[in-house]
Write a structure and sequence with these properties.
Length: 135
């Protein structure tokens, strides 16, 4: 099942100075795991821009995994992978490479989801490049 809120926002363009961070989303063989709810106001506000940023970066749909969640009366979230990944707030985006978590966005930040994750992935990519190789 797909999250409707992940449909790319019409007319979205990266903000000045964020292009490198957004390009970092496509620079590795990352899988993007997105928890959200089409009923959730935070998701409605943030996920369309994230979907557009992933499309802009050229991230293939088969690398984007949607996990629709529901909110219980006590405020807890239920749905696929919620317990396994420790999801408490939405939207949550977990980025994995080779099955290992390399970045996570939870609910809100000062910058959009794509920029927050892109900066984290840029730092991770720089650390990989600086690490000594297996010679």
């Amino acid at each position: 099942m797909r999250l409707e809120t992940m449909e790319p926002a019409d007319g979205w363009e990266p903000e000045p100075g964020t292009e490198a961070a957004i390009d970092a989303l496509a620079a590795g063989d990352y899988a993007f795991h997105v928890w959200g709810g089409d009923w959730c106001i935070d998701c409605q506000q943030q996920l369309p821009a994230f979907g557009a940023a992933l499309a802009h970066a050229g991230v293939d749909d088969d690398r984007i995994h949607h996990y629709p969640t529901e909110k219980e009366d006590d405020g807890s979230k239920t749905g696929p992978g919620v317990e396994e990944y420790g999801i408490e707030y939405i939207p949550t985006v977990v980025v994995e490479r080779d099955g290992e978590e390399v970045a996570r966005f939870v609910e809100s930040a000062e910058e959009p989801i794509a920029v927050t994750l892109g900066r984290a992935l840029s730092a991770e990519q720089a650390a990989d490049e600086a690490a000594p190789g297996d010679d």
